[in-house]
Every structure is written in C-alpha cells, then in structure tokens.
Amino acid sequence: MFRRHTHIISVGHLQIGNDCPIRIQSMTNTPTQDIAATLQQIRRLYEAQCEIVRIAVPNFRAIEAFRSIKSALQNDKIYIPLVADVHFSPSIAIACLPFADKIRINPGNFHNYYDTFKTLIRSAKKEGKAIRIGVNRGSLSKSILEQYDNTSEGVYQSALPFLEIAQEEDFYNIILSFKSSDVNQMIDDHRYILRKLDTRGLNFPIHLGVTEVGNDTYGRIKSAIGIGSLLLEGIGDTIRVSLTEDPVHEISVAYDILQACNKRINHVEYIACPSCGRTQFNIEHIFNEIKEKTAHLRGIKIAVMGCLVNGIGEMGDADFGYIGAGPGRVNLYHKNRCIKTNILEENAVAELLHLIEISLSIK
Length: 363
Fold this sequence. Notes:
The chain is an alpha/beta fold. It contains 12 helices and 15 strands.
C-alpha cells in the first residue's frame, strides 16, 4: 500500500517516518506541576500502548516538573518519549531540550522567530532531539492572516520560513502538523501543502490530527474521517485523536483507525453482516460471544455471516468464517475453504475456536 516518502527522524528511542510503524500519541490534561497526577496519567497511557506523550510547558516552573516526570518514568523503566509543548517563549523551548525528546512549537505563537529558532535548532542538533512544527488554523499570526487570510496557503507560509531555517542549519529531525477543527480544511491543507513541500524536497514526516473534535461518537467520527482519509492517501506518520475526555480513551480509537485503514494491525479484524430476514440464528449474540473469546488474538480476520447468499463472497480474505447454513446450522471456513458443514448452532462457536487454535498452532 502506497505511503508518502519521508525522512526518517528519531524521537527518543523511536524512529518515525517512511516505512516505520505509524506511531500513536496523546497529551496529558493534568496540570504539569501536579507531578503525581501527570505521572499517573502517563503510566495509564503507556499501559494503553500510547507511544509518545506530549506535556504542556507553559512557564519556567513547569520545566522543573517536566524534568522530574522524565526522571521518575526512567526510574520505573518506562522509556516513553516525552514532548514539551511550548507556546510563545523560545527560551522555555530551549530550556526544555535537556529533558524532552521533542519540542513542539507553533509558528503563529513563536515570536521574533529567526534568531531564536536558529538557536533552538542548533541546541536540538547538539542534544540529538526532534522538533515538531505544528501549525494550527486557529492561531495563524496576524501578519500571515493579513497576507493570505485563513487559507491553505496561509498555513503553508506559516511553516515555510521555519523549514528554510532548518535547511540552512542542515537539520532534518523535524516533524510537521497542520491542524484544523474543520475536517475538510484539515484534509485540503495537507493535500495542498504536501504537494508544495515535496516539490522542494521538504519531505518531513507528518503528524495527523483534527483539533477540538469534542467527545463521544461525533468526536470519534470527525477524527476517523480526517485522519483516515489522509492515511488512505499514504499521508501520516504519527496520529492523535484529540478527544475532550480522559486521554487514555484516545488510544484505542487511534489503533482502530489505523487497523481500519490497514496501516497497523493491533487486534482481530472482524467482518460481520448486519443480518436480515434470511438469518436463522441470533447473529448479534453469537458475534459478541466470538469477539469476547477471541479478543486476545492478533493479526487474524474472523467473519460472522448470517447466511450463504453473500456470506462466502462478503467474508473476503478472512482467515476464519462462521456462516449460517440453515435453521440452527452453521458452516465453518478457513481461508475461504469450507472445513465443516451443518454444525449444530450450540456447538459451532466451540468448533470455531478449536479450528482457530489448531490453525494458529500449526503456524
């Protein structure tokens, strides 16, 4: 599957870009200076398989808290890369470098940027750290808005001077993000900007996310459309689902988006029909039972289909199939080959699990 060619960058022990796994990240929402609460949240994110955590560093007092958090995690042998999120103050960004694996800056809030950004880059180069240049539609500078309005060109021009300075300094450990709370704008910005950047050889990795999506189902849908659309076009090297919820909830959604786009398989892929009048067993109950008993598996596809009409074709490339064959009867498939026919419904789930167990042990 096509993926945009990029530089490979390093953030802590992780490599990002090109053919590296698409990384999942989140951001703490605790006050950074509440070290205990922030540590607890990072540990929970780590247990949920988050791979990069961003922490707000709004003032100099937060720098010491950041250092303490990093040290405590290392003492616990949790080596998750930490990103210092810095706005307005180049001096804070530079002061974070000894402790942070990456610094995130926003061009719209990085004032008097030329000399200060050059200093930041030189320090990052010396320390072996990464920089994320994160442009937000909602915080373009006054000068950019006056020249380009709130457009894709404005977003591009906001990032470009920083990238030109990075080129001057021969610094390429950079990742870019172009965020908006509007899904269409977010998608259009990436298509427009990356065409321009790639023609200039500025093929940096991209972090994807839709900002301010809210929570619950709608927030997840907005994130899935924005992030998923670009992933399917080969764009994206890290992602964040920015929910107005406990950030731990973001991680499973992010993995689901990657799996749905066939970009990273983290759990079982299920294929199941919605059922109709031809279905002669309780497919909803059976599907939930199969999911519960196979949730620990990884890297396989299981299809649960109501009948033979479309079942065999619709199960596609599933590794295992459970297909209704008639009243109270089920056929089982392995790799589109029918293995057992007319199994009694009350025995069929156990027979499917046995088939999966045997097949995986042979592998």
